Amino acid sequence: MRFGWLLALCWIGALTHPLLDLQNVYAIQLLSPASARWFHTDGLFIISPWLLAMLGLGIWRARRTGNGRPAILALAGTALFIGGNIAISALAWAAPTRDAPYATPDRIFAAPEPLLFWRRDVVWRQDGFIVQGRYDPLRRLEGLVDFGAPMADRMQEPIVRRAAQATAPARKFLAWSQMPVARVEQGRCRAVVTFGDARFTGPAMSRNFNTVVTLPVDGAGCGGG
């Protein structure tokens, strides 16, 4: 391979990597270090089987035929696929406001499903409460299919605020988390505070996206109590 082409591919990879990261709900600090603001389009599942299939088919056909046209068509199809999914996510972001529950979120995410890519798991925060819903444009274009009851994120409770500053892992996690939530298990002499992120609430995901802080509390029979 020629050095010029290798250098060009390195630059293309460096430029497209953050742009692809921008497409999922993990979000990216696109303007870092100038700005700490997080950006996301919610256009793709973190590992999209449809995207892999389109690109893989394009490469396979190009290599098989010795013609670069299938690869170019695959790239064009990928761009259209991403653009269409961003448009679906924009509809999903607007759905809780346009229709029931007529919310005014201060933060909202619409995560695509891996196979049924047009569906969205919507989660938003409003006034310290987290609400989750589902969006499917094939069933309801301007509203949610369903949504749950609001649940407090508990982030303003004194014990939670204390835990948020208690350890370096907690501070690091909360600096990354876009929609932090807390669960408090109060014992006689200690409190266990588990921080999570409302974007990742499934059993498998929640285990990997949390941090736990144990704090001593005053009480009868406790040291220092």
Structural class: alpha+beta
Main sheet attributes: strand count, strand direction, barrel closure = 5 strands, antiparallel
Shape: globular
Measured by DSSP, the beta-strand proportion falls in 15-25%
The first-to-last residue Cα distance is 71 Å
Order of helices and strands: HHHEEEEEHHEEHE
Per DSSP, the total helix count is 6
Low-confidence stretches: none
Number of DSSP-assigned strands: 8
Mean pLDDT across every amino acid position:
91
Output the radius of gyration.
Answer: 22 Å
Classify the helix fraction into a percent range. Answer: 25-40%
How would you explain this protein's 3D organization?
The protein has 225 residues and is an alpha+beta fold. The protein contains six helices and eight strands; from the N terminus they run αααβββββααββαβ. The chain has helices spanning 3-21, 49-65, 69-98, 158-164, 168-176, 203-208, and strands at residues 107-112, 120-126, 129-135, 146-147, 151-152, 180-186, 190-197, 210-216. The strands form two sheets. Strands 1, 2, 3, 4 and 5 form a five-stranded antiparallel β-sheet that branches. A three-stranded antiparallel β-sheet has the order 6-7-8. A hairpin with a 3-residue loop joins strand 6 (180-186) and strand 7. The model has no long low-confidence stretch (mean pLDDT 91).
What topology emerges from the helices and strands here?
Elements: H1 3-21, H2 49-65, H3 69-98, E1 107-112, E2 120-126, E3 129-135, E4 146-147, E5 151-152, H4 158-164, H5 168-176, E6 180-186, E7 190-197, H6 203-208, E8 210-216
Antiparallel strand pairs: 1-2, 2-3, 3-4, 3-5, 6-7, 7-8
Helix pairs in contact: 2-3
